[in-house]
Amino acid sequence: MSGRLHDIEARIGTVRQLQAIVTAMRGIASARAREARTRLPAVQAHAAVIRRAMADVLAMAPDAGTADASGGVGAGGIAGAGGATVLVVVTPDQGFVGGLPDRLIDEAVRAAGRHAATEWMMIGDRGLMLATARGVDIRWSTPMSAHVDDITTLADHLASAIYGRMATGAVSGAEIIHARPDADILCRRLVPFDLGRVTTGAGAAPSPLLPLITLPPAQLLAGLVGEHVFADLCEALLLAYAAENNARMTAMIAARSGIDRRYDDLTGLARRIHQDDITAEILELATGGFAMAGREG
């Protein structure tokens, strides 16, 4: 029995190590999700300022925006017509996030079905692996940011890739698909930019005193649209980053519950084996004592 008890105690030690690892991973995921959420108000405030400036431009020159059939304008003055739609899919880079990557790919497939032609841009190695396994042709891919401080760099890299495809004339618009911390999957249009967001969005009313400008209104508006698309990308990436870490935190909580149950089972088994060892030793001593008493009698 002692050999078996030794094995059980070794397994208990391993389970304790797993408890510590899972607890640490849950704490890291919680801190990262909280950090991403604290950055969101600044990004949203930045976008609101841009919309206010766009409202000023439109108040001075209502025809400044080159509108397409959907009432949108291209980012940075680049707008295709009748080309493919870029689908930017933001997925996790690391594991322990449950079924989140599959849900994102499923939503992207549904979004692709709404367009005549699409080009996929994939952020995150998990999504790249799943999409490739489904036979999706990925035009462009890059890893997801490992730290929240890298979000703006990734957004700039992604914006350059989108604008580069639009400059060729092969692409007429872009949509981004990402998760939110509440576990919802969101698909929203980036380009052409919807000017309805300026006239109806919060913080979009024109200033009481219109500013003086030195650029042609159309050029200024195009630059502001490009800046707002960058802000939209930053917001989407921050939400996706928080959602990934929320999913990992949830997975670690479930894992910890399973590990705790395993620990209780092994501890109970070790107690029973230890008790059996004691009982067997007592019986052995008692049997020996009875035998000696019989010989003496």
Descriptive key words:
two-stranded antiparallel sheet; membrane; alpha/beta; Pyruvate Kinase, Chain: A, domain 1; elongated; Helix Hairpins; 6 helices; five-stranded mixed sheet; 7 strands; 62% helix; 297 residues
Question: What would a concise description of this structure say?
Answer:
The protein is of the alpha/beta class. It is built from six helices and seven strands; from the N terminus they run αββαβαβαβββαα.
**Structural class based on helices, strands and sheet pairing:** alpha/beta
Distance between the termini: 34 Å
Number of helices: 6
Say what the CATH topology of the largest domain is.
Pyruvate Kinase, Chain: A, domain 1
Which percent range fits the helix content?
55-70%
- CATH H-level superfamily title of the largest domain: ATP synthase, F1 complex, gamma subunit
What order do the SSEs take from the amino end to the carboxyl end, as H and E? HEEHEHEHEEEHH
Write down the Rg.
30 Å
Please tell me the overall pLDDT: 86
Number of domains: 2
Task: Report strand order across the widest sheet.
Answer: 4-3-2-5-6
- β-strand number: 7
Keywords: ATP synthesis, CF(1), Hydrogen ion transport, Ion transport, Membrane, Transport
Organism: Tistrella arctica
Protein name: F0F1 ATP synthase subunit gamma
Membrane topology: Peripheral membrane protein
